[in-house]
Amino acid sequence: MALPPSLRLSVTPPELELIACEQLIEIIPLVAMERTAFISGAFGPLRPPAKCKVPIWMATNLKLKKKCHIVPPDWLNVDFLQDRLTHETSQPEFSQLPFRFAEVAKVLLDVASDDFENPERLRSLLKDIQEARQAKSREGLSKIDHSELSLPNLCSMEINEIRPVFIKAMGVLSQLVREPEGRLPT
Amino acid sequence: MSDISLINSAHQPGHTCLAFAKDGSRIYTGGSDSLVRIWKTNLGAEQEPDVAIEAMDGITTVAAGNNAWFSGSEDADVRQYEKDKHEVSGLVTTAIGVPIRCVAVDPKGQRITVTSDEPTVKVIDIEDTTKMFVLKGHTKAVRQATWHPSGSLLTTSGADGKIVAWDVSDSEPKNITTIEGIIPEVYDTDSADFRHDCSAVWHTSGQYFIVATRAHEIISISRTTWSKSATFSDPSCSGATTALALSHNGIYLASASTSGISIWSTQTRRLLFRYQGSVTAPVTKIAFSPTQNLLAWIDTDGVLTRWPDPIPSSSPDPVKLISVGAAVGIPKKRGTTPNLFGDDVEEKDDASKAKDLNLDEEDEYDATMGDLDDDNWILDDIGGGLQDDDGDAKWAAKEGIKEMAQPPFQPGSTPMENKKRYLAYNMIGVIEVTDQDTHHIVNVEFHDRSARKSYHFTDHFKYELASLGERGALYACPPEASHPAHVLYKPYGTWASQSEWQYELPQGTRVIGLAAGGPPPTQSMRQKNDMDIQGNGNVVIATSDGELIFLTGGGVERHVMSLPGDFVCMCAGREWVFIVTRDGSTTMDGSQNLTGRLIKFDDFCMLQKDTVPIPKGHTLKWIGISEEGAPIIYDSSGVLNALPRFRIPFAATWTRVLNTNTLDRKEGKHESYWPVGVSGETFMCLILKGRQEHPGFPRPLIQELPLKFPFKRTDAKEGPLEEQFARETMLLDILRDGLDEDELTSTDISRRELALDKSLIQLIQFACKNDKLSRALDIAKLLHHTASFDMAIKVAGFYHLIGLQEKLEALKDDREDGPDKLEAQRERRRDRNAQFVPIPDNKRYSTFAAEPARPKPFQDFRPPPAIPRPGLERAAGASTKATGTSQITESSQFSMDDEPSFDFNAHQDIENSNYSQESSPDGKRKRFEEDSNAENDAKRRAVGDSAGDMRTAQARSNPFARKPGAVDNRNPFTKSTETNKSVHKSDSFFNKIDAAETEKPKRTTTAKGKSKDKKETGRQTTLFGLPAVPPPEKKAPGRKKKANVAEESQSQSQRGSAEPTAKPAEEKTSAESQDTDVTMLESQESQVLTELAEESQERTASPEPIDWPDSPAPVEPEESTLVEIVA
């Protein structure tokens, strides 16, 4: 949801990506490395061809230097996403996806599209899912009332999207609702 | 019936077709890639077929005549080819712009029928293609045409749902009849239904034809009435029938449907056999070989499957024509028709039953077969029966030869498929070959690109065998007219120019096996380095002359050995080659009879010789060397075996390390595992889906499966622990066997032993819990470290098993007094080494260039050295120094420590055990925890930014802090101890321990203090401000209370994740900080009794190397000594 700068109170998508890059992902290293200490912890050892779990930021870094292959997470494949898309388009509720799926998928598809089968199809599926979910969250926002809005399985990117509108709207709504109550006694 | 089928990916997915040559020597397949491939039936799956490439569009049909074969394609042309060749000999006809749908050759081989998307059918004379007539009667495309065995009758199946029978015996073709409502109407030529085979398959008797109906039935239609006469049905066969075929003699009908491939008896119309494998894509065409017991089919994935021997030898042959008499006699043998899986043994068992059954049916046969005498049905009353018996014998013999005698193979190689193959695929890298017709391109890639440089080269010799060793790649080419066979060795190292060499074999000799071995490099092979003196490893070549030639990596011929039998395969390790041969012949009951030998490189002596354990009826699939150096084999039954004690000459046994059939992940899936290697506890493999036999291109990812001994105990807790123990012990044995002569143990081994002891203690605990005392004792005998016995004794004490406790005591004394286990082992190793000196185990990966003295900065996980602070010395007194030094020694010692101790607390929570693996001062332990946490949860970084501080804090760890105690308050045993005060009895026993272990006394004190505290936690806050030093006479109780406070404050501070930097000076001044009353007390003591300062310091604050849990019994003597000291 494109918003004017005045409404952009929340974190930006690149910032969310940065946060998501802390998640661990499996790689197949192409270089050997001993266990190494980083600020966020110690990772490794890298022993090709054994797989290793490292944070995404490290995986992308190694990938850009052609020093590893990224093992696609089990949810990032055509079958799974197709399944989720049909679920998304046929069911009223949000389907279950990893909380930061949008960020992780974007980062991985950006740097390691050659490690995926059919990256183009993945991209279009992700786009479809994203649009289907956006439509739902818009619909959800239209049903907003002053007390609650329940959107289970909403993902970080989507929460971030609706955050500015939602906070404002919630504020206004609660004001609108509270005022008559406050006046009633007088 | 054999279950082994030959699978080839023949064409691109889409419509495909298939036909056998009349003599059965070839199979023609066509596909949507507009190619026709010609497969030789006498070759296996690794053949490269001839290709006919003339068609411009997808091939829709192929047919074989006597002297030619025909293809029809969507480009509207029917082409004629020379028999068995791919040279086109003429264009037969063209359908003017619409795709050809079917070409059928008449039984005499004189005419062909061509159908297309036009509603007309052409019948053309092969010799003179101008002689043709056109049949008109369909209203839509004509999908299939079939000939009656007499050649006078033709049936065509149209997209309009009609089956039309034509009389083509004379020049005026006549429409005999039109049958409607049997086959479906399909108008869309692109639909899947259109591809289904709807042809009317004439029985060889000519009495009826068989057709798949739109109701998904298979029915036979009588020629006399042109109506349905019988149905072939079986509950296990469901879904649309996509293809039908009749065996050459008409006894069997094969049908392909979505539920699989089935073979029916045309006489009883019962399901006889089923293909064991699954069918992944709809089969478009199926056919019996006219001359062999062979069934072939092709599906919409373009995969050609050949099923040799679909009809077991116990049943009548599908080829030979048999008489009516024989047909009646045979059912006795064919027996149980409803047998789904065609199991021969069962069939024999049921033979008598079948006999009864057949008696009933004989009348029926007579009815249906009554008028067989006409037409082409050959009568042979006598010969048939005899022939059949001959057939039985012949098949049995043939099976015996074929199933057995596995040919030589190179582990990790695949056959040429679509002009690509793997020559080697192992833990080091991959050799891929691309066929460019005139030459090959060899591409070598390594998994670890930092260690070796990938390369590729053009290969004019067409190398067919290769081995990728640690220090070089070895290739061998077959002899050709222009050159004899030779072997090429390309070492990776680059320090010497011209390191690559070629070794020519005499004319007429072939290379049948290759292996390149050698110790793994200690440094990157990419850099030029003169330090490496280990050379280029070793090369072993097996030749067709029955020789085994040993060369060094530099090309020096060392030894020629006679092969003890038929060579099967080999692979080379660090110091020996593992070679598998067949000594003698295979046995009649299906055993491969393979023998494995380890032959050393240094003196060419045998190290091991043992039969390779392969189940009967199975073959060896792969052999390899694990990362630890043990030989591994994988057989076609899916079992992985290892030879862990390979260093003990002639004593090693094969251990079953993984049965892939029982893997959880295999449940409900059809997949197989193609081994790549074994590393530690993981089986590295490629997972092949469905019936795939070899990995394809692009290169699939290597998957990791954990090794799992096939232990049968299913107990959820004990089972896995026992399995883990056995598995780890196997690895430990390999490591121990590889130790040097004077090494007692290594860091790695002690660490692993410690981890094992931990799981053993858990097992003892379970055993104690369930009162299985003898079991507990058995497990205790397996413990590695003496310190672990103390743990076991504690566990026994906790469960009030005094008897067991005493036995464990005795065991421990025995272990202590008796000869040192490690030394005994070393002695044995030495004895062994008198005969066999293993090349010292190189650190496999480790750092390049001979172990730097200090690890690299970011890989240093040791706490930084403590900085002596003379300025603070006065404040803390000698104690600071004492702890400082003790800690340093501790931390440097831990790696070499033979008897690392346990952290019992960690062992308590099995799940997330931050098991401190080294005997650690508290600071050390914390650091470890930090690491593992960071690894598990990277987000922790946000909080854990104090990591740096922490490290320094831990380095100068507070000499006054009661850290061991702080950990204790998590001990679940504490509470129970309180409830069971009766355990006092064991006092004496603990005193014994105390006597043995001088450090321990303090421990118990703190423990006791704490256990009392538990009750008093409510009052803690009020106690907080109490004076630090209680009067000496009230000492004991007061101290306990304060210990409590200390405990509390410490645990609080721990929870806050940042450990306070405890400097002695600070402690002196701030009462709120971590310094405890106890330590205050201690410092006072040290002031009063300087000579005792050191001792007391050590007691209270020195980091205990052994983190004992609370003892169940309070130990009074401690208290008294304390009082004495103060007094």
From TrEMBL, chain A:
Keyword annotations: DNA replication, Nucleus
DNA replication complex GINS protein PSF2 N-terminal domain mapped to chain residues: 12-71
Pfam families: PSF2_N (PF25005), Sld5 (PF05916)
GINS subunit domain: residues covered: 75-173
Subcellular localization(s) per the UniProt record: Nucleus
Keyword Kinase tagged: no
Keyword Nucleus applies: yes
Subunit field text: Component of the GINS complex.
Family listed: Belongs to the GINS2/PSF2 family.
Name this protein carries in UniProt: DNA replication complex GINS protein PSF2
Organism encoding this protein: Somion occarium
TrEMBL record, chain B:
Superkingdom of origin: Eukaryota
Principal cellular location given in the protein's record: nucleus
Polar residues bias locations: 911-920, 971-980, 1047-1056, 1071-1089
UniProt xrefs under InterPro entries: WD40/YVTN_repeat-like_dom_sf (IPR015943), WD40_repeat_CS (IPR019775), WD40_repeat_dom_sf (IPR036322), WD40_rpt (IPR001680), WD40_WDHD1_1st (IPR057646), WDHD1/CFT4_beta-prop_2nd (IPR022100), WDHD1/CFT4_hel (IPR048591)
KW Nucleus (keyword) present: yes
Residue segments, region Disordered: 813-1127
Annotated ranges, domain WDHD1 first WD40: 9-304
Biased composition (Low complexity): 875-886
Subcellular location: Nucleus
Natural source organism: Somion occarium
Biased composition annotated in UniProt, kind: Basic residues: 1003-1012
UniProt name for this protein: Minichromosome loss protein Mcl1 middle region domain-containing protein
Sequence ranges of Basic and acidic residues compositional bias: 813-833, 921-943
Cell inner membrane listed as a keyword: no
Family annotation (Pfam families): Ctf4_C, Mcl1_mid, WD40_WDHD1_1st
Entry keywords, A to Z: Nucleus, Repeat, WD repeat
Span of domain WDHD1/CFT4 helical bundle: 721-816
Domain WDHD1/CFT4 second beta-propeller: 408-710
Ranges occupied by WD repeats: 8-40, 135-176
SUPFAM superfamilies (UniProt xref): WD40 repeat-like
Transmembrane domains' residue ranges: none
